[in-house]
Target: Rrf2 family transcriptional regulator
Amino acid sequence: MGVFSRTCEYAMRAVFFIAHRTPEGTRVGIKDISEGIDSPAHFLAKILQDLSRRGIIHSAKGPNGGFYMTEEDLSRPLSDVVEAIDGVQIFKGCALGLKQCSEKNPCPLHHEFKAIRNDLTKLINGTSIKSFNEDLLNGMTSLKK
Amino acid sequence: MGVFSRTCEYAMRAVFFIAHRTPEGTRVGIKDISEGIDSPAHFLAKILQDLSRRGIIHSAKGPNGGFYMTEEDLSRPLSDVVEAIDGVQIFKGCALGLKQCSEKNPCPLHHEFKAIRNDLTKLINGTSIKSFNEDLLNGMTSLKK
DNA sequence: ACAATTAAAGAGTTTTATATCTTTAATAAA
DNA sequence: TTTATTAAAGATATAAAACTCTTTAATTGT
Model:
């Protein structure tokens, strides 16, 4: 596995996909999303239900229903998605999994690893979904499988 | 989970523990190691068997047997341990799990994430087990649970 | 040769992550 | 009010990770 769980990868891809596909009040269905980001539809549905319950994205049932994101949703940092799925360990945990690892009692990787974790936090926590999406809309970045 | 799998965390802790405990031809048993790093003994045994088969650490059976590391083992980068257990995805994979993500077809996180991955690679790949161990021996760092 | 000690190997079990399938509830449009 | 459409929810199923237990093999010292 990479840095994030597969579930979290799906979640982030789906969020970017929804952001990208639903300008101005439109919605996108689970089928389109799962095909668009190459993930199992039913599994992704569970993930999006979860994000929806937490208010990270929105959904509507019925004809022309689907998933969408409000301006408020778009202005959230990507870390909201990551923390909802993978928790905060990735931003806070010791590289060796030691509970007592701290500034005063550092593990052999502590200081250097902390710098890396901080950079990751800055990226994921400090950048809004909207701004990642702008690069997508500009064609500067891509979600191609 | 943090950045590394739990199995990988055990492996790294065990390697540091062995390095720390076996100066000059001594050996340390699985019981001592598993207690010292707070991991399940039988499970750790499997992990160390694996590392041993790959030549990352060494072992000897029988009375006064146990695990130890040669000078050559100590001079290896920590990445040998990580790659043996978790593979190379952590150093190479796309943050969103996209197969086609590349410089020419970057995902929304690509460039910033690449910088972070490179820093991680530099740390894990560019530092020998021995040099991490020196900080341990000097009491500058700790493996306390 | 024998007994004791230690890791290696084999064969599970349990837990968590990932994935699928079916049924229900909400909504919109005819 | 009926039908079609969509997400939500519930119930499993499968696979992978984490963990345990038992037996075997190698080595040492007596």
Observations:
- The helical segments of chain A are 6-21, 30-37, 41-53, 71-74, 79-86, 89-92, 110-126, 129-137.
- Residues 27, 29-30, 45-46, 48-49, 52-53, 59-67 of chain A lie near DNA strand D (CB under 10 Å from a C1').
- The longest strand of chain A covers residues 58-60.
